Structures are given as structure tokens and as C-alpha cells.
Amino acid sequence: MPIPNADRATIAVEKLTAYLLNPAHKRGAAKARLLVGLGYRTDAPEVLESDLRTQHLSLNATRESRNPYGVTTRSKARLRHRAEEPCASVQSGKSILEAKSLD
């Protein structure tokens, strides 16, 4: 299934710079080393944001489960910073709020 409202997804700059691109982050260090190794930089987080939008959010996701916040989905994609560079396999999971009709 396509990721609902992917075109309206918010990707916070702080999440990119303080977590995904921060090799000193307690939980994000391994991701940061991988992404920095691909050429992404904390001083240009908009490049990673753009690549995530075009290469990841545009793909289909699988429905995993339901929780109090909505439906949990998981998606996998290859992320490539530059055409001549190697790529990484990225996986993400999100809870998507489901709008309920009031009719």
C-alpha cells in the first residue's frame, strides 16, 4: 500500500541533524556513520530530506499492526546520495493516524 499522505510528511531538521547524522548520538550513531559515509552532511540536511522523500516515501509500505495511535507500517528502500556512490538499504516504521469519519 502507498504510504498515506506521504506528500505531506514532516521530516524535522532536528531529527536529521541531531539523530540520523549525529555519530555521537546514543541510538543513531550507526545510522549516522552509514549516512555520512554515503556523503550526507549535517550542514546540508535538506539533501537527505529530499532523498528520503523521493527515494523512500514514494514507495509502498506493508501494514504491520494496529496500535492506539493508528496503523503501524514498515517500508524498505535503497537510498543513494549520488548516482556514482554506493547505496544503503533503509527501513522505517511509522504509526499513521487514521482519520475516522464522523458521518
Number of helices: 3
Specify Rg, calculated over alpha carbons: 15 Å
Number of strands: 3
The total domain count is 1
Q: What average pLDDT do the residues reach?
A: 81
Percent helix range: 25-40%
Low-confidence stretches: 97-103
How far apart are the termini? 25 Å
Succession of helices and strands: HHHEEE
Specify the biggest β-sheet: 3 strands, antiparallel
The main sheet orders its strands as 1-2-3
The helix-and-strand class reads alpha+beta
Q: Write down the overall geometry.
A: globular
Oligomeric nature of the chains: single chain
- Please indicate the percent range of residues in DSSP E strands (runs of 2 or more): 25-35%
Report on this model:
Helix content is 27%, strand content 26%. By secondary structure, it is α+β, with helices and mostly antiparallel strands. The chain has one domain. The radius of gyration is 15 Å and the shape is globular.
State the gist of this model:
The protein has 103 residues and is of the alpha+beta class.
Core attributes:
alpha+beta; single chain; 103 residues
Topology:
Layout: H1 13-20, H2 29-37, H3 45-55, E1 62-67, E2 70-80, E3 87-96
Antiparallel strand pairs: 1-2, 2-3
